[in-house]
Amino acid sequence: MTEPAGVIHDIGYQRYQGERLGRRYVVSSLWTHSLRTAYGFGRTAKAKIFPWLVAGLILSVAVVGVVIRAVTGEVAISYLALPEGIYPLLILFAAVVAPELVSRELRTGVLSLYFSRPLSQTEYALAKLAALVAALWLLLAGPLLLLFLGGVFSVDGWSAVWDEIGDFVPGLLHAGIHALLIGSIALLIASLIGRRAVAAGAIVAAFLMTTPVVVVLSEVGGDTGSQLAGLFSPSTIGFGVRDWLFGTDGEESMIGDYGPVYGLVTLALVGACVGLLVLRYRRMRA
After folding, report:
1. How far apart are CA 115 and CA 111, in angstroms?
2. Mean of the pLDDT values across residues 248-274?
3. Residues 211 and 231 sit within 8 Å (Cβ to Cβ)
4. Is the whole model's pTM more than 0.85, yes or no?
């Protein structure tokens, strides 16, 4: 009688019988993880230095505005003017965070592991974009909230508080426009470049190298040219939309009657960036 060639061991394997959380949970988890990554949560102390340094600098601007208003009663920094004053910091933040969200995964080749789960390429791209936009918006919303609280305690009467709310809400909406515009452009560029340093430089160049074009057209284009010059740089398109939707705090608008044009160009630019971003990932194999 021959002995069996092998033995089957019962290691107690059991099939999972719990709740299947599904695609929505996967997408929300990816969004949450990406948002935490943007601010360095769950990572080393070194990874937290830059995002929180930028956040601290922007908060310090808001603190100065609150102190000036408390002492003098004058509004030194309006809700709509805050993004313009710290715009370079927003660009630097996006240039560092966007490659951190996607470039590392492109270079290390782990996307196939993501797409082996119930997560489509489109959902992956949109979750990453939503995380970057949320990170940029929070970077502005925190200082805006600080300005609002300082303003509320500097005015008298419920009517004045209501007026303060009426100024605060457009500021949040304006911050959202900038977050969406900067985030969509930055993430698209980062998704095309695997090396983080190169991607960061390309993002900064996309925003800053187009600014001289606006200056030149403003000088040589006459009234119409100067009013449309802001369309040639993503750094100025958002401020044109601000002037169109929310006014200019009593100053003369630099965009004339071309506000709807700025709005349409902004929608077209964001739509094109989101579409190309989704296409970029849909062409990858699971």
Report:
1. 6
2. 86
3. no
4. yes
